[in-house]
Amino acid sequence: MKWFDQVVRFLNAKEPRSELKSLDDVSLMACVRRGGRVRDEAFEILYDRYREELWRFIRSRNVSEHDGEDVLQRVMMGLLKYLEKETPSRFLPIAIQKTKWEIATHFEQYQKRDWGRLSLEQMSAQRIEPMVPAPSGEPGDLVSFRALAAGAGLSDVQEEALILHYFVGFSVKEVALITEVSENVVKGRMRLAKLKLRGISGKEDAQ
Amino acid sequence: MSYLSRNDILQLMETMEPQEIRRDHRTRLDEAGLSFLDRVEAELEAADDYLESAGRHFREAHPAGDRPLPQPSPDASAAWTGKWFPNWAVLLLVVLFLSVSLVYRTGWGGHEHLSGWNVHRGANERVPQLAEKNEALARALVERGETLLAAANQQGDRELLNAALADFLLAYELNPRSKTLLGHLARTYELLGKPDKAAHYLNLWETFEE
User: Fold this and answer.
1) pTM for the whole thing?
2) Orientation of helix A37-60 relative to helix A25-34, angle to 10°
3) Domain topology for A15-115
4) Which of A50, A103, B149, B207 is the most exposed, having the fewest neighbouring CB atoms within 10 Å of its CB?
5) CATH number of A129-196
6) What is the pLDDT of residue B63?
């Protein structure tokens, strides 16, 4: 009764997740595509792996906490549906693309109809977006990082690279995956951006 | 950062050999450039530290927490305008098709009289009319044949008998279900001197069932 033992062991296995946890994104996506019981577990592991980053990415786009949950939910449901049908070569670029799309849709809906929530002006007054200490001002003074970057003349890709790396918390490799360029290009972009932002740290005055 | 001024250069040219001047100039330029690069590197590091601390601050301010994997909620999939519209359209098309075909089949629209698109229905309806016409024609032929037969009996004319036979045969083609006609045919063939055919029709007359 070898097969019976195997079935019993499989049914009694409390945590098959420990085996799945060591898999990389592509294998997990393949598990999701295969469906069945493995699907939910594999997708949950994928979610756990990138949850922090996705959440911070949503927040860095100036989405409030309440709406951010909706956006995250829609993103994950959309990704699950997508992964049931197809297996892309990378998870992260797809996830970020979907998140961007959902955030854009979210703001589009805000502009279209009044849901009795915060208006765009109120939302920008909430100052969720990455806030950094003002370069020349009181210690507690905060300014919007985007405004600062615009003032320093950063291009969009440079600003995006800085936000993804420093504020959202992606590694340089992951940023390169997301923005679909090589790691060296990302490093160059960040170096140029930091050159443009040279004056903001305030250490120049000390020297 | 220091560059050589014109006076410096002139002064150096007076006191130093050209080789020395060149070497000294290179050294001082290198020093100036290196100090500039050092300063840029230091500023870059400062910007890096600044962004690191700001990013850490942002990350700590917005933790994902133990947010569980969101489950599909009913109101997320309740956007029926987007989700169900194609199905509604398909249903509407099916209902339209069924209602149009029903009206067409029953003829409630009266369209069969309006155009020629439904002629085959008219053709089906004309079939009984044709049968009635054939019956009337057969009756007329039988009447004429009876008259001719009577005249032939009186005059003993074979031509008239042949004419009567032609009428009876044509009437038999148009309407074979008539016992009288069978009797007439048998009688005419008998008068014409064709007993086998007369026997055939007599046989038919005897076995005929109305």
Assistant:
1) 0.53
2) 130
3) Rna Polymerase Sigma Factor; Chain: A (1.10.1740)
4) B207
5) 1.10.10.10
6) 83
